[in-house]
């Protein structure tokens, strides 16, 4: 049965602990300091870097916004005559759709996840 240990730290102590932990979670680093490296312990959990967290948030926002679908609908409305159509507007909308798709692909690659189409 797992037990939880909670300790109060000053801001300075917390900052030092975060710095010393590096890419490890604070729990993992603290456990290692208290008990040493234990080969029987569970697989090491890597603390995500700030840019990975940010990339994940951007990808989640892009996926939940339906921006690409909305842009595609606007482009379709323009093709069907339901939107004032000019060649430059249509090209701009198509370019925006392609840009959004490229951003999605780049974010998926940056995060190292498998794309779901």
What's the topology here?
Layout: H1 11-21, H2 26-35, H3 50-65, H4 67-80, H5 87-111
Helix pairs in contact: 1-2, 3-5, 4-5
Distinctive features:
65% helix; 117 residues; mainly alpha; 2 domains; 5 helices
| % residues in beta strands | under 5%
Query: Any idea how many domains?
Result: 2
* Molecular shape: elongated
**Element-by-element helix/strand order:** HHHHH
Give the termini distance in whole angstroms.
41 Å
Fraction in helix: 55-70%
Q: Please state the average pLDDT score.
A: 79
| Classification by helices and strands | mainly alpha
Which value, in Å, is the CA radius of gyration?
Answer: 24 Å
Count of distinct strands: 0
What's the story with the biggest beta sheet? none
Output the number of helix runs: 5
Structure description:
With 117 residues, this protein is an all-alpha fold. It has 2 domains: 7-47, no CATH class; 50-111. It has 5 helices and no strands. Helix 3 (50-65) packs across helix 5 (87-111). The model has no long low-confidence stretch (mean pLDDT 79).
In brief, what are we looking at here?
This protein has 117 residues and is an all-alpha fold. It contains five helices and no strands.
